[in-house]
Structure formats: structure tokens, C-alpha cells
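Hi C.,

You asked whether I'd gotten around to modeling the 668-residue construct. I have! Everything is below, sequence then structure, no commentary in between.
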Amino acid sequence: MKVSAQAAIAELSWLKGREIEALEKAAFTCLLSLLDHLPKRYEDRRRFDAFPAQAGGPAVCLRGLVIDTQRKGFGGKGFYQAVVEETGGIAFARLTCRWFNMPFMQKVLATGHEVILYGKPKESAGGVVIDHPEFEVVNDLEPGTSIHLERLVPIYRNVSGIAQRRLREILYQALECVDEGSLETTFSVDETYQRLEAYREVHFPERLSQADAARRFFAKEEFFLQQLRVLWRRKTNQGLTGRVLAKKTALLTEFYQSLPFDLTGAQKRSVKEIIADMRSARPMNRLLQGDVGSGKTFVAMCAMLLAVDSDCQAALMAPTQILAEQHYLTFSKWLTPLGVTVGLVTADRQEDLQGAQIIIGTHALLFGKVEFRDLGLIVIDEQHKFGVAQRSKLIQRGIMPDVLVMTATPIPRTLTLTIYGDLDVSILDELPSGRGKIISGVRIKPKVREMTKFLIDQLEEGRQLYLVYPLVEESESIKAASAVEEFPKWQKRFKNFEVELLHGKLPSEEKDAVMSRFREGKSEVLVSTTVIEVGVDVPNANVMVIFNAERFGLAQLHQLRGRIGRGEHKSYCVLVTDGKNVTGVEKLTILADTLDGFKIAEEDLRLRGPGEVLGTRQSGLGELRFPEFLADTPLLKEAREVAAQVIRSSEAAQIKALLGELLTENLE
């Protein structure tokens, strides 16, 4: 008998009581939620890899016989190991599998079991080992069971309490009994498949190309709903009535005339777009996107001066205290001579709020200790570092304020459409003139003496430099250098220069003091973590050495590199790595070969995926099931066009019903 896709887990007759309990505990609610538990990968069990003779390389899928098992070690350092011999391959080829802190393994895996293993081989004192491989015992498989052997076999993310083999059987049964009609959706986004056919081909494909095509079908459905949300939010925003600002431009004109340089064409274009938005009756909702050093801060100043000239206050929220204080100094330098008062608010610092027309701050702006007189413009810097709720809370502190969000992280067009599709976008695609050339290079295990000599040569020419480490302190679990550990070594090497240490664990007052001395040239070398990633502007600093550079994402490395090359001097970014990670070296070579942030962002998206590039929680991408397709521009455009058609042809009630009650609450 066929079962509705909406049938509760407890109603599925082929499930045992403990399986129902395990599935419900894992947040499976109905048959459809089971079908949506898609394979994380596939194993081709028509053929297996040969047992590896040495460590390294990609993960392998092996079939072998357990010829020995032992419990080794004691207490927290104990582990269970199994020696596995290859079957059907080179005689006596063996490897060892180990499971740490999992004593129950001796009840699961025993000598004489035939197993299928999946994992990455690595070197150990006893030869090649695989730690914590995924495995299935072949002996337990029923003879002739086609879903487990001699085919492309789906491998699922584990559900506690249900073995992988049994989970596969549950999914197979779910496909057999689901009522096809109950899978139909209100809007069809792709006529290529019936949904049941797509589910069958994604779970139990005959060819990998079938699985890829089916996943693309479901990705398009997901992107359609995501784009529907974005376009609906955009339509809703356009229907709002706000205030009309920027009619006066006297302050802006005076600011232009006070600058010792001309704005770039991209900056001027962006300012014109902002003026048009602020003069419109609907609230501005604009993204200012620009590469490091492209001059977003000056565009923000222009927008905030327009708000001040309209008798409103403007606020800028930055993600870190260092960045907020950098903005405060910059704004005060340029705007105080114009008679504009600038205030600063951070968690432990508050300055000049009395009568402040422009208020710069961190998350502290969200709370009641700041009393806004009339907040007409909000600027959010490095906005992807803030959550949606935080941005909304600040916006609610004004009355229909204009909003300008900024990011120095170049974002691929696909992600811009996905995340910021409800915003108007201004792009700064030019760098100001007078900037020195940046030379980047990858160095594998460089000699410390040679590197130190190069750095001293730069210091003796009067320059300053950053030495960046991935860790604050030494870690037992992470093999990487730390700022605290390396700091005294650099003090000895640079005994004739002032070397200082900066990291996020220092008290705020100490961080401020360290940065102030470096900014003023009182110290020449800054040994630091990534706390300097954004907002630090020291034109005389022309060298950056990034240690264990392979541990950082491309976009973050590009952000760090943006701290140099801000003055007239030739600058150098040295990317230091041990060279063991081939993909890591490839990534660093990409960075060394280009200064184009948008090319780097595309590569970062390809290598790491959108969640890592932007931060899943802040970007709203945390729940995406198919993030790998975000680089598929044609697919995203197809989904967006279907969503746009639905918006054009449907009533609001239909759209809200499609998005669901919970989503609708957030849209209204």
C-alpha cells in the first residue's frame, strides 16, 4: 500500500520501534524528510581500489578480510585496531585500521569478518593505517541484495542507532512505498523530472551522471524557494515609504573640495547611486561592494554627510573594536574640520556622544546606552560578520532609515544574487592612484636566516612589517605556529627594532595601545594573528609574512594582504607553507598570481564552498543542502527567473503559502 510523503515516521510499518525512536531523535518527522536525507557520496562496489602501499593521496574504498584484532593502550589513549588483508588483489597486501576511544568496536568487528572500508591512508610506525574508516561488514549482507553490492552504493550521513546498511534499506523501502502524487509541489520548476524519478536516481543511481542530474534538479528547487524569498523581500521593501533625504549637498561639496585627491570614477558613480536612493521615498537598501583598498570608507563618509545635511544622525557599525576605532580616527580626521561631530561607542569605550551627528561603533550600538536623536542612515561595515537579527535590531533603532551595507570581501556574482538579491548593488572596481605595487610569492619551508635578512633590509629602509600567525598560542591538536610562541624569537632577530605582539586575547586597552604605536611608527614590527584582517591602515607597512598560510581561506588571505600596499612603496606579501598539502599550495599560487579580488573569490568558492567563504550563519546559507551548485550561474539564473515569474503572476497569499508560515512571519 502506498503511503503519503507527509506520513509521520511512527506510521511507517516497516520500521522497528527503536528505529522510529532513533529517526525521531535525529529530527526526521515524516516520510518526505527521510527521502530528503540524500547520500553524501557513492561507492562503486563493482570495483575496489588496490590496497595502498604508502600514505597520502585521496580516500580509498577497499574490500578485505580482517585477519587480526587487538585492543591497545589504556584509558583515554586506548584504541581498537584491525589488520585487514586485501581480497582478490595482490597476495598479502595489508593495512591497519584504528578506532580511538571506541571500546564498543570489539563487539562490532572481529577476526574473520569480510569488510568494505573507506578512508584516507596515512603513515604510522607500523606502516600504512586508516584511522576511523567508514566500514560495513560484508558477512552481514544478505546474498544477492542488490542495493548493497555490485552496484553504485549510496553512503549516507550517519543516524545514531541505525547502521549504514540498515539506513540504506530504509531509504530503499521509502522509495518503494511513497505515493507519487503526494510528492507534487505547487509550482514546478523543472519539467525534466517527475520528483519521484529524481528521488530514485539520487538515492540509487545506475550511473553517477544520473545522481548529478537529480541533485541539480533538487538544487534548482531549493534555489527557486531561496530566490522567491529574496524577490518577495525586495518587492516588500520597494512598497515601503520612508523619508526623502539628500536634497542638500553643501557638506558633500565642501568635503569634495577639502580632499587632496580626486575620488575614483567608481567612487563617484557609487555616490550618485546613493544620492538617488536617498532622494527616493522608499528606504535605501544598497550593498557597496569593493576590493580591499578600493575606498569604501570615503563613499560611506559621503553618504553620512548627506544624512547630516538633512538634519539626521548617521551610524556606522563595525564588527571589531579595532575597526571601529580605525573608522573613528579616519572620520574625525576628515570631517571634524567641516564642523561635523563624530562619536565612538564600543563595549568598553564611549567618546563624544553629546551632540554627535555621526556615531561609529561595534555591537554596542544595538543597545540602549546609545540614545539616537533621529537615526536617518545606517552603514554596516563588513556586514557578513553580523547576523540578520543584529542588522535588524540596529535598523529598528531608527524610523525607516536608509541602509548601506559594505563588504571588502569580493563576492562572486552567484552569491551576490543569492544572498543580496534584495539589495541594489554598487561595485567599486577601481583602486585609488598612488598605491605601490604588491608582489606576492609562495615560499615552501624558507630558510629563517635568508628571510630575516630580507626583512631587516626593509626595516633599515624605514618600512614596517606584519608577521601573521594562525594561532594565538601553541596547540597540541593543531600543528601550526603561534604568535605568542614566535614573538620572543623575532624580538631577538630584530634586536635593533621595536617588535610588538597583537592578538584577540589581549585586553582592549592593550590592543589599542599596540595599534596606536604601530600606526604612529613607534614600533616597526607587529607579530599578530588575523585580528589585523580588516580596518588597519598603516601606509608605511609594506611587508607581510603569513605563516602556515595554507590554513587560511583565499578570501581571508586576500583581506590580510590588503593591509599592505596602501602607501607609495613597493610591497611584499610572503606566503609561507610546509608544502605538504598539495591543494593548499595550489590555493596559495592562485593568490600569488593575481590581485583581482573577484577572481580570488570565485576560486575560493570553488575550493571551499560558500559556507566557508562567507560564514554560513551570518550569510543565511547555513541551511542550503546543495551549496556546491552555487557556482552554477545558469542554474541560479533559471531558478531566479522561475521565481520572478511566480512573483509577477501570483497573489501574495499564494506566495506566502508556498514559503510557509514561519518564513512569512520573517517577511512581514
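If it helps when you're writing up: The longest helix spans residues 208-238.

Thanks,
B.
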